[in-house]
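Side project, low priority. Logging it here so it doesn't get lost.
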Amino acid sequence: MKKILFALSLLFACLQVSCAGDIITHDTKKLPAKARTFIQTYFAQTQVSHIKIESELFQTKKYEVLLTNRTEIDFNKDGEWIEIDCDHSSVPLGVIPPYVSEYLKTTFPGVFIVKIERKHREIEVDLSNDYSLTFNRKGEVIQIEEDD
C-alpha cells in the first residue's frame, strides 16, 4: 500500500512539474483583455518587448510584461495589475489611488512614484527620492522607509 501511495505521489509530482512552466511570447493577444486595455490606455506610446506567462498545473498564475522603455507590469490571471515598475520614470497618474496622490502632494511635493505594488490589503509605492511608503486600504500611511 505504501508503495502504491509513493508511486502515485511521485507520478503527481512529475505531472505537475511537466505541466507547469513559463512561456515567453511577444503576442499581446495572450494577455487577458483587461491587461491589453490597461496597456493601451496608460502605455500607448510604448511597445511590448515580451511577455512572460507563469503557470502552474493547467492554470495561469501571473503575466509579466516588459515594455521597450524598461517598464515592467505584472498582471494577475484576471488581467488586473499587481505591480508597475517604471524604472526611473513616473507611474501614470490614472493608476495611482487618489489618497496616495493627495498624500504625496502635501508631504513630498515635486516627487513622483516610480513603482507601485498592490498587495492583499496594502499599496506600496517607491518614490523618485528613494523613499518607500506603504498605505493600508483606508489610505493611511503605515510605513515609511528610506532606501539606501
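Brief comment: Strands lie at 21-25, 48-56, 59-67, 72-76, 81-85, 113-118, 122-127, 131-136, 141-146.
Revisit when time allows.
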